[in-house]
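Example 3.2
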Amino acid sequence: MATDRITITNEIRAKLKAEKERTGLHGRALLAKSPTSVPKGLSSRVIDRLISGETTTALPAHIDWLLELFATSPDDARRIPPKREMIEQIKSERTRTGVSLARLIHQTKRPQPDGLTLHIVESWLSMDIKTVRPEHFGWVIAAYLAYPNRAPEIDLTHAHLTRLREAIERTGQGPRAILRGKNANRPAGLSSTVIFAWLAGRTQSAKKGHWEWLMARYASWRPDPTRIEITPDIRLKLADEKKRTGITPARLLTRHKHDVPDGLTSSMVDAWVRGQTEFAIDGHIEFVLNRYDELSGGGHRLPLTVERIGELQRELDRTGRGVADVLRLAPKPLPKGLNNSLISQWLRGKVATAKHQQWDCIMNVLNRLPDKRV
């Protein structure tokens, strides 16, 4: 049946595209050329989708009408055959600037002539299009000429990367740290992401200006005299103090909020302990350690030593009482957080400290109880 759709083969589509390029006629222009003979259902949108490949099937009458109309249409007088010198000029400009065709077409703000697309320009270079609109070619060349020469690059050899890794090890400054605070004079485009890509081998070249600036930065780097390295011993000391006292950095600084040095925060102290920060202001570390040292005996918490847990177990054995009995006999209200589960954790060594009030409550009850009956 005439209304049955047929598949648009590659051969048919190639023929239609070639005719469109030869004549310069798009959907709207074709319909205007022969408005009285247009088959039912054929519109400019249908024609453009059919030729571009967005539609995979079509009515035979539509295909026949398009091919017949194209066959009777002359060549586009505005088009010229692409010369090899023209193609080489585009390739030369692409190499000179380092600007891809996609970037040129999609990011250049210069107004574009109608009908110019990335696909068309790529087709010039592959010689898939036999004619070129002079205004299209002129725009491409003018757009390229507005770009400067690409920055000179160097190949990143094994020697380059070894030198970079040695600089990082010598200074203790990784890509992020070495760039910190240098936004004002850092070359455009240089970031820690770029440097990490060099180190990981994801990029085999680097802009010469980027490399020279970075190595000069490493060569001139000097440690801040007001900052000290957070050694493993300092991290361990901070972690031990937090565990011993049961006081988090946030609580510690809140207690001394009127004396905390400028710039010191609890999140900063947490980063020291986790190893996320390599250096800190000497006075900050000294302040935190001194405040922890002031919490003699663990401040509000008591270290649950082997001897102390042994004492608790002996009292439970002596009285023959279970934990639930002791809690039942303790004065009410119980200290906040004191319950059967918590005391069981003490006995199993699951927690390292206990609040003085909780411990004293349990031991006072046990000390008043008589020995169990034999």
